[in-house]
């Protein structure tokens, strides 16, 4: 074996060996509840701990035959504010959780009744491992159950982000096909790869979807992943924010399920045109809000959806671009997002961004 060939083999083998070491040595959390999880930490991050311990659980037994042998799941949810105020349901994306919305919740909770949840495999909800099938359609049924039987909301605005956009579209299908006890009065969509041909998926996402997925995600250390995850935030997260997020990723080995939960992209690819047609025919007013610095869900996606499905539809729709925000506009520019929510849901008659260095603009 010549030297050049040995070097090539070494370059290929070294990363695999490192991944296997992380896979074998990484500590795995097996907590059954949030309080025990954070109680076991010497210095738990306060914000994530407080957010989790302030929530509640409801039980969901999967309706899929593939999941028949799995126990019922604990699904985490939280509510904020008075039920006398206008209501908003917020649905998070991949690979994060409802904690994504903490900053805009803090800005809006005195004006709105806000409901958030963690779908299975995310945040503080249960994360069943190999053999469990995660699907967008079941997530939509879980949201419907939360609305109908748990918080019993009568009318609300729907705010979605990333993977949550697809959950929102599937929920919209249910909403249009069946008579519901609730009414969606506005639909707000934040950055997400809602038309995958124009998305710029990362190498990491492709690896998670590949046959190497179980080894790749099983070796992910939450603190290291969170540090690298900052490429989709602008400005980057502080050390404190990273600690909070990493602790949520570590709950029940959340990073170890990424290769299962990321398969939502396969569903999105299969159903995205149908979902976008559903959006185009919906009679629910829509607001599309996009951070223009997003390296994955490029602005071209929002432009395409606006041009082909929203701009000329019968029901009202409006499209805002934010030049200074990336993939998580609700974290990058929470004041702007809160102001747009107020304006589009009727709690603010006129928008004003005079004191803000960055200003959103309307796309015609």
Outline of this structure?
The chain has 364 residues and is α/β, with parallel strands linked by helices.
Notes on the structure:
The chain has a domain at 52-204 and 272-348 and 357-363: 3-Layer(aba) Sandwich (Rossmann fold). The N and C termini lie far apart (64 Å). The protein is globular. It has 15 helices and 9 strands. By secondary structure, the protein is of the alpha/beta class. It has a 9-stranded mixed sheet with strand order 1-2-4-3-5-6-7-8-9, sandwiched between helices.
Primary descriptors:
disordered N terminus, 9 strands, 15 helices, Rossmann fold, 364 residues, 14% strand, alpha/beta, 9-stranded mixed beta sheet
SS-based class: alpha/beta
Global Rg: 21 Å
SSE ordering = HHHEEEHEHEHEHHHHHHEHEHHE
Major sheet:
9 strands, mixed
Q: Which residue ranges are poorly predicted, with pLDDT under 50 across at least 5 consecutive positions?
A: 3-14
> What is the name of the CATH superfamily of the domain at 52-204 and 272-348 and 357-363?
Alpha/Beta hydrolase fold, catalytic domain
Shape, principal axes of CA atoms? globular
CATH topology of the domain at 52-204 and 272-348 and 357-363: Rossmann fold
């Amino acid at each position: 074996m010549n030297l050049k060939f040995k070097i090539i083999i070494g370059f290929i083998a070294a990363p695999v060996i490192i991944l296997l070491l992380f896979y074998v040595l990484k500590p795995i959390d097996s907590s059954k509840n949030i309080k025990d999880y954070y109680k076991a930490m010497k210095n738990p991050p306060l914000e994530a701990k407080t957010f989790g311990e302030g929530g509640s659980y409801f039980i969901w037994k999967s309706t899929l035959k593939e999941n028949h042998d799995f126990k019922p799941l604990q699904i985490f949810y939280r509510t904020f504010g008075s039920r006398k105020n206008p209501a908003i349901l917020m649905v998070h994306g991949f690979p994060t959780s409802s904690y994504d919305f903490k900053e805009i919740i803090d800005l809006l909770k005195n004006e709105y009744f806000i409901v958030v949840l963690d779908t299975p495999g995310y945040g503080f909800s249960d994360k069943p491992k190999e053999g469990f099938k995660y699907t967008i359609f079941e997530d939509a049924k879980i949201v419907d159950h939360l609305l109908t039987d748990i918080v019993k909301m009568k009318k609300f605005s729907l705010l979605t982000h990333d993977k949550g956009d697809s959950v929102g579209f599937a929920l919209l299908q249910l909403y249009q096909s069946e008579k519901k006890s609730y009414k969606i009065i506005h639909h707000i969509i934040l950055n997400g790869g809602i038309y995958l041909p124009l998305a710029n998926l990362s190498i990491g996402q492709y690896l998670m979807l590949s046959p190497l997925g179980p080894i790749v995600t099983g070796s992910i250390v939450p603190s290291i992943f969170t540090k690298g995850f900052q490429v989709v935030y602008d400005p980057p997260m502080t050390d404190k924010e990273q600690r909070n997020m990493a602790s949520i990723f570590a709950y029940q080995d959340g990073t170890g399920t990424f290769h299962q939960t990321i398969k939502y992209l396969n569903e999105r690819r299969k159903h995205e045109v149908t979902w976008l047609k559903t959006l185009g025919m919906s009679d629910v007013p829509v607001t599309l809000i996009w951070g223009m610095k997003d390296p994955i869900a490029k602005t071209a996606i929002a432009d395409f959806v606006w041009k082909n499905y929203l701009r000329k539809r019968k029901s009202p729709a409006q499209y805002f671009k934010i030049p200074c925000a990336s993939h998580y506009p609700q974290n990058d520019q929470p004041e702007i997002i809160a102001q747009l929510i107020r304006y589009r849901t009727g709690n603010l008659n006129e928008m004003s961004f005079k004191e803000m260095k960055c200003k959103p603009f309307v796309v015609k």
